Amino acid sequence: MRDGPARGGRRERSRLPAAQRRERIIAAATALVAERGFWGLSMQDVADDCGLTVPGLLHHVGSKDGLLVAVLEHRDAEDGRSLEAALGVPPEEAGLRELCAALVRRNAAQPEIVRLFAVLAAESLAPDHPAHDYFVARQRTVLDALADAAEGACADPEALARLVMATMDGLQLVWLRDPGTYDLVAMWEEAAAALFGASA
After folding, report:
1. pLDDT tens-digit readout, 6-60
2. Which of 87, 99, 153, 170 has an alpha carbon 20 to 30 Å from 159's alpha carbon atom?
3. Are residues 78 and 58 in the same domain?
């Protein structure tokens, strides 16, 4: 469901401020990548959704790869702000269990964004994918953050971080495949009891 004009129709010519235009481009691209993956993304469709020509779209994002990076970086920034608001402290100051619970609650409220990341994470296993390096670096960053949050709570924070990340990713796939059947937050709470113990 698009809010832009149909392909071949008259494009919107309103002049939006650059920041607002970029937000609209990122929102349109996010929805399309979540639906089709990066390789199925058409710059023409993004342009149509935003009331732009393809050259006008490229003026804002530089390239298809640049658009993908903008989408990923925007999502990371939004997640950071949301987590800090939910936790009441910067995410790096939260305990592991609290951090994970807040992240799962956020993800449960935005299935389209979780789907986007799941699709791109799988696609980017190919070394020539434009987001390959991003996801390699992101995995390392997330594992380090989880291990830091687990410091002092267990004998091997790095091992626990890997288990937590794998569990969260796996539960999200189960949930995304059948969201009407599964409750992501409830599944995580069950997993957290097994991972952290009743009193952790």
Report:
1. 444 444 455 778 888 989 999 999 888 888 888 888 999 999 999 999 999 999 9
2. 87
3. no
